[in-house]
Amino acid sequence: MADHGRVNVFASPWDVELVAESLLGIRRFNDFQAALGISRHVLTLRLRHLVADGVMTRERYQSGPDRFEYALTDKGRDLVPVLMAMRQWSARWQSSSVEGRRGAGGGIQGS
Question: Rounded to whole angstroms, how far apart are CA atoms 36 and 17?
């Protein structure tokens, strides 16, 4: 399948959450896990993806065992307007999509 020039930064919904959490500054693995409730395995995979894509940096802050801090790169910080637009779009359309399903018989019945 052709990508038609699209960038696949947000390959997972977790990627959006990780970038948003990183807006708070330098974060550690346990910070992400505690804030998002994400499994260690999925968190490891998603952080690797974001680092490989140049959205985040990974810097060792402790050896034996190795522990790392993560921060947004310039490329990652450039995603802030994208995140804001996505949240605004969601806020605008979330309630109308629920209303639309009620009116169209989409399975949401009166509560």
Answer: 8
